[in-house]
């Protein structure tokens, strides 16, 4: 907060120092100090958003995320994916192993589950995955807290017949 106040007052160096102290105190950067440093031109933009910050942000929003996405924004991505598979492969479509990349609350996984013998969903946010696990139709889906890069690297020998990233 001190960094934000200093930046608002035009005290650039003091803001930078405050954000740097915050980052030093919390290397996972749950408060987003790197983002603020990048805004000040003091950190590379490409590395600004830390996994800890993204996880903390979505953990806070997890309980309201799905209703906001579907009810307020009219999100229909998973239904569109389901319809596309039916259109391309028919009702007998079947995939041995499916991945839901950045699964969020599990909307896409639930929509794709009928087509998948094995479905693995992963996300940075434990809060989002708690919501995904609560879906009655989520039975049989394996949910994992993981970063996309580490998840795929850790399972380098595996393959998937279907992989989706549906922002849900």
Q: By helix and strand content, what is the structural category?
A: alpha/beta
Strand order of the largest sheet: 3-2-1-4
Work out the helix count. Answer: 8
Order of helices and strands: HHHHHEHEHEHE
Helical proportion, percent range: 40-55%
Count of extended strands: 4
Query: Regions with pLDDT < 50 over 5+ consecutive residues?
Result: none
Gross morphology is: elongated
Mean pLDDT across all amino acids: 89
Written account of the structure:
The protein has 168 residues and is of the alpha/beta class. Helix content is 50%, strand content 14%. It is built from 8 helices and 4 strands, in the order H-H-H-H-H-E-H-E-H-E-H-E. It has a 4-stranded parallel β-sheet with strand order 3-2-1-4. Strand 2 (116-123), helix 7 and strand 3 form a beta-alpha-beta unit. The radius of gyration is 19 Å and the shape is elongated.
Summarize the model shown.
This protein is an alpha/beta fold.
Task: Describe this protein with a few key phrases.
168 residues; 4 strands; 8 helices; alpha/beta; 4-stranded parallel β-sheet
């Amino acid at each position: 907060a001190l960094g934000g106040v200093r930046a608002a007052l035009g005290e650039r160096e003091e803001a930078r120092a405050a954000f740097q102290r915050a980052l030093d105190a919390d290397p996972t950067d749950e408060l987003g100090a790197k983002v603020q440093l990048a805004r000040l031109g003091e950190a590379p933009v490409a590395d600004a958003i830390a996994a800890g910050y993204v996880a903390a942000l979505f953990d806070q929003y997890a309980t309201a995320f799905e209703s906001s996405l579907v009810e307020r924004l009219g999100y229909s991505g998973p239904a569109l994916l389901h319809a596309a598979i039916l259109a391309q492969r028919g009702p007998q479509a079947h995939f041995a192993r499916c991945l839901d990349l950045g699964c969020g609350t599990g909307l896409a996984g639930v929509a794709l589950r009928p087509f998948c013998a094995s479905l693995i969903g992963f996300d940075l946010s434990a809060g989002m995955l708690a919501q995904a696990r609560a879906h009655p139709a989520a039975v049989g889906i394996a949910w994992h807290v993981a970063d996309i890069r580490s998840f795929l690297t850790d399972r380098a020998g595996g393959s998937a017949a279907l992989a989706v990233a549906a922002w849900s």
